[in-house]
Amino acid sequence: MGVAKSAGISVELRPRRRAGRSVRARRGGLRRLGRSTRAAAAVEFALTGLALFGFILAILNLGMFGFSLGALVRGVQSAARAAAVEASASYASNGTLTCPAPSTVVSLFNTYADPPLPVATGTTGNPAVTSAWTDNSTAAVTTEPQGVYLTLTAKYKFVPIGFSAFGTGVTLSITTVATVLGSSAETATC
Prior knowledge:
Blueprint: E1 2-6, E2 9-13, H1 23-35, H2 40-94, E3 97-98, H3 102-112, E4 128-136, E5 147-158, E6 170-179, E7 188-189
Parallel strand pairs: 3-7
Antiparallel strand pairs: 1-2, 4-5, 5-6
């Protein structure tokens, strides 16, 4: 700033100001913004939050997968065992081996696999339960178990939560064989 004197009058000269903030003030604001850490946590969470949410969803799905697989195994093994015991009980009580109907086997499966899996309706649907009774009490087929036995298969299509865009799911299939105790060829009606 300078002072101009002319004929006894002094006038102070000031630099002309632009409208708005000065360049120096604008530079200082940018520097403060660059040094500010107030928004850093929000930006970091925005960058990592999506990955964190994906990991949590994957862990949840892995737990549901294991729970569904365990229920499927428990349902198949328990239903086959219960059907074989029911057939053995019929043979012990009246001397005639009467194998439970497929609808009874499906009902037994629903009893044991109920909590995490939906209700099975038969050979179609999700889960699908297939049962087949085989009479090999004369040991005609040497590669299979001797006696009357039940082969029970259940298939369940597991679809992960939140990841359906990456595929149609995973089909779980469990098969077990249960032999009927005390069975003979003359009395089997399966």
